[in-house]
Specification:
- The complex is a heterodimer of chains A (201) and B (109).
- Chain A is mainly alpha-helical.
- Chain A has eight helices and one strand.
- Chain A has helices spanning 3-15, 19-35, 43-68, 75-99, 113-129, 134-148, 158-185, 188-197, and one strand spanning 71-72.
- Chain A is globular.
- Chain B is of the alpha+beta class.
- In chain B, helix 2 (17-28) packs across helix 5 (80-100).
- Chain B starts with 11 loop residues before the first helix and ends in a 9-residue tail after the last helix.
- The chains are: A mainly alpha (201), B alpha+beta (109).
- Strand 1 of chain A pairs antiparallel with strand 1 of chain B, so a sheet runs across the interface.
Chain lengths: 201, 109
């Protein structure tokens, strides 16, 4: 047994709970729809959708706790995560302003800073938590690169399009993470079968 | 026959693979429940229970049983003694690994 294998298993059980990423992706798409002239016009749609998403997130939390357990991170890990995200967000904001904004020092490039920023933050988050896997690189890297191609309309609906793209990337990435989690640790059904064999149910 | 040095004497309680995995998981987190330990170590429920009992009796872990939404929940934390002993155990394993490498300069104390 290698110590690193155990540490990796802990990171994977904690951070490959990809259904949360699916919820995040749906939230990004909802945010885009709210800004989209072609989206639903009724305010109630968003209230009901937000409630449904909240309930789905709660159900996801309960599912993961029941079938994969709960662990409390160390305060050192929490501090590290906060620092990483603060640095990541700072780079995101400064980068967006530098690449495409009204600031006098901006390069004012026709890029999609929403897509680039979301791609960057998602890559930083997985790198710091569980390590980048091939599908993260493909999905979030493609999101970043798609935003960096200098063909975007300045202002306009570019930000919204970025949100749709980020939402799609998070949904697919989340599903693939969840699949990895189940492949690595077994399905919920496998845990129940083991309980049945042990005569505990 | 010369006495083996401390470097070559492994902690038999911790060295068992299941218990070493449990303690190593607990050293990476602040606390973990039974299902998290079961999933992450790959141990069966019975094995995990048995190992946790031994570790608790030796004072290496604290096991707290409680009810969460009317369902039993077991939460496990590493004691300071447990943290020290598992860290020392991994250090010893690393020293043994380096000593076994060809051309190693390390000699027993």
């Amino acid at each position: 047994m290698d110590r690193k294998d155990v540490d990796t298993a802990v990171a994977e059980n904690t951070h490959l709970r990809g259904l949360y990423g699916v919820m995040g992706g749906l939230l990004a798409i909802m945010a885009a729809l709210a800004n989209d002239d072609r989206g639903p016009s009724s305010q109630w749609f968003f209230v009901i959708a937000a409630l449904a998403l909240g309930l789905a997130t709660l159900a996801t939390w309960r599912y993961y706790n029941k079938n994969f357990g709960r662990a409390t991170p160390t305060s050192r890990d929490v501090r590290r995560d906060v620092v990483v995200m603060m640095v990541g967000v700072a780079v995101l904001i400064l980068g967006s302003l530098f690449l495409s904004s009204r600031a006098s020092w901006s390069l004012d490039l026709p890029v999609n800073t929403t897509a680039m920023g979301m791609g960057w933050i998602l890559l930083v988050a997985v790198y710091a938590s569980v390590g980048i896997r091939p599908h993260h690189l493909v999905l979030y890297g493609a999101l970043f690169i798609a935003g960096a191609v200098p063909v975007w309309e300045r202002g306009g609906m570019s930000g919204n399009t970025g949100l749709y793209m980020a939402g799609a990337a998070m949904i697919v990435g989340g599903l693939l993470d969840h699949r990895l989690l189940v492949q690595r640790f077994g399905s919920a059904a496998a845990l129940e079968q083991e309980d049945d064999r042990a005569g505990t149910q | 026959m010369p006495e083996p040095s401390d470097d070559l004497v492994l902690d038999r309680l911790i060295h068992e693979p299941g218990r070493l995995a449990i303690l190593t998981v607990l050293s990476s987190v602040s606390a973990a429940d039974f299902v998290f330990l079961q999933r992450t170590t790959g141990l069966t429920k019975g094995n995990l229970s048995s190992h946790l009992s031994k570790l608790e009796d030796a004072g290496l872990v604290t096991v707290e049983k409680r009810f969460v939404r009317k369902k039993p929940n077991t939460n496990v934390t590493l004691t300071p003694t447990g943290a020290e002993r598992v860290a020392r155990h991994w250090d010893q394993l690393e020293r043994l690994r380096r000593r076994s490498e060809p051309g190693s300069q390390e000699t027993p104390a």
